[in-house]
Write a structure and sequence with these properties.
The structure is a single chain. The protein is α/β, with parallel strands linked by helices and about 375 residues long. It folds into 2 domains: about 325 residues, Alpha-Beta Barrel (TIM Barrel); about 50 residues, no CATH class. The chain has 13 helices and 12 strands. The strands form 3 sheets. It has an 8-stranded parallel β-sheet with strand order 1-4-5-6-7-8-9-10, sandwiched between helices. Strands 2-3 form a two-stranded antiparallel ribbon. A hairpin with a 2-residue loop joins strand 2 and strand 3. The structure holds zinc ion.
């Protein structure tokens, strides 16, 4: 599948999941294949990937995976091409997801656990790899894993982490709109901006999230299952949206309402008949974020899919890679003085936080973040 001019960032990839090591329900079905998955992503117009860390252990693993993205030949001797294509394109968010926050208490030393997360985040920031704190939030569909009072207690605590490292937040809200929005509004001053990913909420939830000026909404296959989901999606302005796969989960299935807008398909094989050049049936992966883009475009009646991809890309850089927006503006100034032409669209952008009128400056990014 050719990239056809779109430029995409998949903001949610669970590369620490066993399926990317070929393990399904505890059974090894094929070899680990992140290099092949990345190669398909880069060939499909995906420009960067953000890997989620859901526990301290997962966050550590996610950072290790992100660090290999420039050295993929170490993982697979046959993937020399990926070495160049994949350099410095995989980033990480790290924290404890709602159903994992029991870790704080089970560790017997919640403060020590917090300090371990903070130290890991700082290490990842120094390596240029950690771009947000998350995923964290409230998931009331998983109360059997962690009761709501414990989820709330540690969700509040996680704003401390964002405040300490001055990074945006990567959030998850499921069946918990009221409590989630209450806690976010109490802590707005502590983080520079955020995205509520894997959004499956109601129109009311959507409007509450959009009322926070510095909040974006992340859409994946789980956000596109029913006609009600698509109606809610229509009310999210493209300027407040990001797209993701949440792979290996949340793929767009044939039974989903959004499927009618999907145009791009990749060859796929069952996991038992795995081939490195095909996707695996039922396992989502980053190249398929293109399908999410197509459903968003179709559902919102947007014919200019490249234009939509630019808007979503820009939103994502604005939150997670603000230094690149500044760099692109600088490059444009230089090119103007040299009278040269032919820069790609990102270089043509002029928007930076510092040149925005105050009314549009929805948050301030601290200079320390611009590493
Ligand atoms: Zn999530």
């Amino acid at each position: 599948m050719a990239s056809t001019g779109v430029k995409l960032i998949d903001i949610a990839v669970n590369f620490t999941d066993g399926m990317f090591r070929g393990i399904y329900h505890g059974k090894q079905c094929h070899a680990a294949d992140i290099p092949a998955v990345l190669a398909r992503a880069w060939a499909s117009g995906v420009d960067r990937i953000i890997v989620t860390g859901g526990s301290l252990k997962e966050s550590r693993e996610a950072l290790e995976i992100a660090e290999t993205d420039g050295e993929l030949s170490c993982l697979d001797a046959g993937c020399f091409d990926y070495v160049l294509l994949g350099a410095f394109k995989v980033f990480v968010v790290m924290c404890l997801r709602s159903c994992d926050v029991l870790e704080f208490e089970e560790s017997g030393d919640p403060e020590g656990h917090f300090q371990a997360l903070l130290a890991l985040a700082k290490e990842g920031i120094a390596k240029g790899k950690v771009v947000a704190v998350g995923e964290c939030g409230l998931d009331y569909d998983r109360l059997h894993f962690c009761p709501s009072d414990v989820q709330k207690k540690y969700f509040k605590k996680q704003f401390e982490l964002a405040e300490a490292v001055k990074l945006p937040m990567f959030l998850h809200m499921r069946a918990a709109g009221e409590d989630f929005c209450e806690i976010v509004s109490e802590n707005l001053y502590r983080f520079p901006g955020g995205v509520t990913h894997s959004f499956t909420g109601t129109a009311e939830d959507r409007d509450k999230l959009l009322s926070f000026e510095k909040m974006f909404i992340g859409i994946n296959g789980c956000s596109l299952k029913t006609s009600e989901n698509l109606e809610v999606l229509q009310g999210i302005p493209a300027e407040r949206m990001m797209i993701e796969t949440d792979s290996p989960y949340c793929d767009i299935k044939n039974t989903h309402a959004g499927i009618k807008f999907v145009k791009s398909v990749w060859p796929s094989k069952k996991k038992e008949k795995y081939e490195p050049d095909s996707t695996v049936k039922g396992r989502n992966e980053p190249c398929l974020v293109r399908q999410v883009l197509e459903v968003v475009a179709g559902c919102k009646g947007i014919a200019d899919i490249e234009g939509l991809s630019k808007t979503l890309y820009h939103n994502t850089c604005r939150l997670f890679f603000p230094q690149d927006l500044d760099a692109s503006a600088d490059a444009q100034l230089e090119s103007a003085s040299e009278g040269s032409e032919g820069f790609d669209w990102l270089v043509m952008e002029t928007w930076t936080l510092s040149t925005l009128p105050a009314s549009e400056k929805v948050w301030e990014i601290s200079p320390e973040v611009m590493v």
